[in-house]
Amino acid sequence: MEFKGWNDFENLARACGYSSCGKNDNGDKTEDEFENSECRDIPNGFQDVDPQLFILIGEILGNILSGRLPFNVQNALGNWLQLVGQVIETYNAQQQYFQGGPGIYFNPKSYNVSNPFCSSSQNTNSSKNKPNKSTNDIKKKNSEEDMDSKINHLELSLNDLREEIKEIKKLLEK
User: Fold this and answer.
1) CB count in 10 Å sphere of residue 13
2) Is the separation of the CB atoms in 61 and 67 below 8 Å?
3) Which among 48, 58, 163, 167 is placed 20 to 30 Å from 65, CA to CA?
4) Is the whole model's pTM more than 0.70, yes or no?
C-alpha cells in the first residue's frame, strides 16, 4: 500500500485494492459482466470492499469526528448514528422475516435445518451418530406409515378433484 498521492477517499480506496463501480481510470464506463443480472451491487457499493478496510474506514471517521467535537455533541451524534444503525437492522430483519416466513420453533431435531451444506441427519454428538438397530427399525416403520398416510391423503384429494370435474362438466352442459 503506497501512501503518496492520496488526494481524496477514492485514491485511498484504490490504494487498498478497491475500484469504483463501472468506471476505469479515464472516467469512461466499462463493460459490467453483471449488468443485466440481479447480482449487481449499488453503484460504488460496499460489496467489493475488504471487511478490514471497511472497519478501518469507520474507525478513522470516528476518530476524526470525535477529536473535533465537544463531548456532548459526540454523545448526541453517537446516539443518533446508533439509532440509524438500529433502524437499518430492524428494516433488514423485517425484510428477512417477510421473505423467509416465520421459521420454526426450537427443536433439537432441527439442528442445521437451514444450512444447505449440512445434511439433516448430521449431528455433533457422536452417540447420536451410532443409532442401534431398533432405532433404525422404528425410523423405517415411521417413514412407511408416513408414506401410507400421504398416499391416502393424495387419493382422497384426487377423488375430490374428480367429483369437482364431474360437477363442472354438468354445469357446462346446461
Assistant:
1) 19
2) no
3) 48
4) no
pLDDT > 70: what percent of the chain? 63
The radius of gyration of the chain's CA atoms, rounded to the nearest angstrom, is: 30
Return the closest-CA partner of residue 120 out of 104, 134, 100. Answer: 104
How confident is the model over 62-102, as pLDDT tens digits? 898 888 899 999 999 999 999 999 999 999 989 888 887 77
Instruction: Find out whether 10 and 19 touch, Cβ atoms under 8 Å.
Output: no
Q: How high is the pLDDT of residue 161?
A: 92
**Full DSSP string of 15-47:** HTT---TTB-TTSPBPP-TTTTSTTPPPTT-ST
List the beta bridge partners of residue 29: 23
